[in-house]
Design a protein that fits this description.
The protein is an all-alpha fold. It has six helices and no strands. It has one domain. The model has no long low-confidence stretch (mean pLDDT 93).
Length: 133
């Protein structure tokens, strides 16, 4: 397990600032707060990635953010095509996360690229949901 900061993952996690600013501007404060929590939890973990309570905090905060976005997306986006694209985005987020975990377990160094894509795709998907809610 890594014990030094992973600057690539810190960088891609930092892109969460964009949905934070966008949701704040659109007065979607629950989405803003949930993304702040996810950002802080993730930055806290990737600054010293090891299996500790920081990892659990990252899991909890990222799951809370996911739940809030899925809830708001599901309950407020009623148009067919935006909803379909939202479901597609959710499946891509899951797929990228799954692949990064699988590659990590197999000790394949490509895992980091999947996880970076996961962070970036999550950022874009959050902005998409904020736009439609």
């Amino acid at each position: 397990m890594m014990t030094k900061p992973n600057y690539w993952l810190l960088g891609t996690t930092s892109t969460f600032i964009f949905p934070i600013l966008y949701s704040y501007r659109k007065k979607k404060y629950i989405l803003c707060f949930s993304t702040v929590l996810a950002l802080v939890g993730s930055l806290n973990y990737w600054k010293n990635p090891s299996i500790t309570y920081n990892r659990n905090i990252d899991f909890i905060t990222s799951r809370l953010s996911l739940i809030s976005y899925v809830y708001f997306g599901y309950t407020t986006i009623y148009k067919l095509y935006p909803s379909m694209l939202g479901y597609f985005n959710l499946s891509m987020i899951y797929r990228l996360y799954y692949l990064s975990c699988k590659k990590y377990i197999l000790n394949d160094s490509v895992w980091i690229y999947y996880h970076m894509l996961f962070h970036l795709y999550t950022t874009l998907s959050k902005i998409y949901v904020i736009y439609w809610v």
